[in-house]
Amino acid sequence: MSQHRQSNVRTVPRRPPAPTVEVMRDFGGPPPSAPRRRPSLLVPLVVGAGLAVALGVYGRTHTPTGIAVNVAGFSSPLTVKVWLGTGAAFFAVIQLLSALAMWGRLGGFSPPWAGPAHRWSGRVAFLLTVPVAVHCLYALGFADYDTRTLLHSLLGCFFFGAFATKMLTLPKRGLAGWVLPVIGGVVFVALIGVFLTSSVWYFTTFGIQF
To answer: Where does the sequence pass through the membrane (predicted)?
Structure first.
């Protein structure tokens, strides 16, 4: 009887253990690369702002001498200043057009000489502004007689600060695509503002003189 009962008991077979998968790690390989951080613009911005403020403070605290060097062929140092400013604005426009050509913004017109033209026009434009700045700061100082002279003084200081920021930003790699065009555009607008408040004003007030 007991044997009959034991024969009716079913035993459930045990399931075999699930196979374990061992993940092999390559400890000898390089670690996963972390996302690259974009270079900071803090130093170029601080240096540019500091230069602009320093020029403004010097022009404000320095006693204007009224003495400037004249150039043969011009009637006065002031005409030298306005013509140098005109030349700087001209080469700034060349630099803008060459930049647009480099970026393909002129309807496909992108000659191979656009790059050298862009660099050299910018260099010439800046070199022409240096004697103008020396004349303004040393002979005239930071002028604020009216709205035009105040804007001219502010834009002049701002231009050199923005230019310093641009020069310190150029060597940086990995910048966002909009950084250099924006900074370059700010430099261009500042220089054209200086040109409008000096050379254009002079020509429209006193006529074209040499």
So the answer is: 41-60, 80-103, 124-143, 149-168, 175-203
